[in-house]
Amino acid sequence: MANREELLVIRAARAGQAPAQLALGKRYLFGGAGLPKSIATALYWLDRAAHQQQDEAWLLIGSHIPFEAASRAAQPSSLCVWYERAFDSGVLQAGLVLAKLVLAQAGDCTSDILRRKAWMALEAVAHAGFGEAQWLMAQLIGHANGCDGTDLRALSSHSFHSSILKMPASDTAKKSVLEWTVRAAGGGVTRAQHALAEHAWQAGNHDDFLQWALPLARQAVARRQSRHMTDSPEEPVIDDTSLLARCSEVLMARGNVDAAELERFLEVAASGGDRQSCLALGLWFGRMDGNGTRLTEVRGLANYKKALRWLVAAGEQGLAEAWYATSRIYLKPEFSQRNLLDSYYYVQKAAEAGHTVAQLELGIAAWRGRRNDQSKDVEAAFWLQKAAAQSNQEAQQLLGKIADVAEPTFWAESARKKLVHDRNRSAPFLVARLELAAVFGLSRAEALLLNVNAADCGHCLLIDIRDAHPRSKRRLILIQSSEQRQVLGRIVRLFEDVDCSLKGPEGNYRQRLYRLRMLAPE
Hints:
Blueprint: H1 4-14, H2 18-30, H3 39-50, H4 55-64, H5 67-71, H6 80-88, H7 92-104, H8 112-127, H9 131-142, H10 152-155, H11 158-163, H12 171-186, H13 190-203, H14 206-229, H15 238-254, H16 259-271, H17 275-286, H18 304-316, H19 320-329, H20 340-352, H21 356-368, H22 376-389, H23 393-402, E1 404-405, H24 410-418, H25 421-426, H26 428-440, H27 444-449, H28 452-455, E2 460-463, E3 475-478, H29 482-494, H30 509-519
Parallel strand pairs: 1-3
Antiparallel strand pairs: 2-3
């Protein structure tokens, strides 16, 4: 609560007395016995005092009022004159605030003279060693429009920070931007350090990347540890997550690193939601690679329970490698919860997510199980076809053994040509069967006896007429094009409510063969 003396100062300041306004501004600026410290209130009274020719007022503004407080004033542009005077009087930090205020204003609100003065002030402050000014110089040079009309909010965005070193077109500009960024990073400007780390990463220069990224990564880990100590729920920022993930990747590739520090990096990045870090951390705890092979170069015992936690987290974020690695853990004899069913479950999840080796494994397992369940050949073709589509040679070779490729047949094409238009309407089922035979290469018996409703398996055509034609064989024909899929879908819809057995409307095999020979004689 203000004392009697301060109440007198407040009353005089409100009455318009310049010395009282200056004194009140100083008390709010530095805090008094009865008045709280308030930068915004101090700026208000110092501005009023400066307008009444109180030189100490604008010196105090230039020396102690930061840009954040000045930008929140009612008319920030009107404060430029005080920062300009303070800079001319030797207050260097006033030049930085002046440049920021000018940049934050629209181009038509400031004069060319003031913009040039702001640029000169910023350059002088940067040469004097102010890291923030050096970073702003780098941004301005990197900006396509230079100093004039630059939006300070755009310069503060992360996307601009990450690409600043790639924006200038000329080599001279690139060199200048890099020079100022290095100076700012050396002065402790975190955003400049992030920019240099990003630049080195994009250039593939891992040595320079670690030079700038490792200190930032260690700071991120320290911040997280301090949050845990204070029970703060705040999570690491996205920049830290990406940076830690990249640091971990480079360090793991190099080997011979501090295992404890690497583990901390991975834990923070994984906790921040980076799925690759979740996968790497799970494999790290499991002391294995993505195929479940033990990593002999990594010391220490495996902790499969921790490994499963992070691998499942990575799998839930869409990494098929994580599901496959999880399945390998459940196969390990030293794992206390070893379970073949769980392993098969996670192999299925990996295959569904697109893991080629998992798809091949499921295909082989299904093909071997056809002795107990003949329908397993359809499942085998499904997984092998998916693995073969990802250029897996073993899957391609096995798929060629268990399934045929559709090839047009001469007899079906010839029979279709002999059918006249009016007869097509009188025998639509026969016409459809001939079209199916022509597209998928069916024999005459297969075309006439095929149960169309049960033949469509989605990825392949199942041919099994052994009940009506004992000398035939069960076989699969792959569906490999959208045209084949459309033809089969249309024909299946035609037979949807039709009994395709020998008791159906098409008759037995002799009747179907007789109808074919009558409509399309050989």
